[in-house]
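Dear colleagues,

As part of the handover before I leave the project, I'm documenting each prediction I ran so the next person doesn't have to rerun anything. This entry is a single chain, and its sequence is reproduced below.
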Amino acid sequence: MTGQLNVEEVGSPVVEQASDPRRVLLVAHTGREFAVEVAREAHRLLTDAGMVVRLVGHEAEALELDPVEIAYDAEKAAQDVELIIVLGGDGSILRGAELARPHGTPVLGVNLGHVGFLAEAEVDDLERIVQVVVDRSYTVEERMTLAVDVWVDDELVFDTWALNEASVEKAAREKMLEVLVTVDGRPLSRWGCDGVVVATPTGSTAYAFSAGGPIVWPEVEAILMVPLSAHALFSRPIVVAPTSRLSVELVAAWHGRGVLWCDGRRMVEVPPGARIEVRRGKMPVRLARAHAASFTDRLVAKFDLPVLGWRGTAELNRRNRSAQEESQTP
């Protein structure tokens, strides 16, 4: 492909010479033909507007776009770009968040999936969304993250982060976990369970919601904990302060092994006796917003919630009939 720029070496003369144009990093689910078509259309709209499109190496090979910059080092792909535009579902947006977070780059999602709760727009709105990007008429909000550590015999063996949730789950279907949950170093309860989900407000509409947890508005700073199929009298979801430190310890005598998943993307096995500590992350994820709609409106739209009820529907039908009769009156 012609017109390509290798940005593998950040700070190289090549990058410095090409730093004047406005850049966006385009992230797409290249395994889906529809997503490839949408990515090509987004590339056309952006380049026609004078913007430079950057792609991660393996996606560039699949999309075959020209002109384009190519970042062969994914960890540096979001450096010096104005925005990351993600075309896909929530999984793709979480992948975009991985690229964006170290550089503080905003992420704007265009939904090609099902619910797409993290997405800002649907694919039918692509042309308008590109214009919003070109006009810089979007806003940016910060979403809190979680810092997650795994300790074994008082030794830190793994650390990572999450935007949605960290979930500790049983590794074998036939064996449940026995966990001891603590808050700020004080024991709260011990459960035999399938696992425990610790989530942010952003993640309250994801795995934690499916497990029976509450929906928390993103402006609320808090950490949620939701047990999964717990065999206990006290096994309700809890919400704690963002300054709290939660821990889930796999009781050593139980001999049940677990698996830690963060955002469904980063995984590590955890042995009996391991302790998973979760606290607020120091580095947030920045999400770009192109709409002024409230979170309530987003919730209603994404989940297709029945805001009218049967009384409201009846009233709406009466109004429609009246309007139809008036239009037929000579």
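Residues 146-280 form a domain with the Tumour Suppressor Smad4 fold (CATH 2.60.200.30). The chain has two domains: 4-143, 146-280.

All the best with the project,
I.
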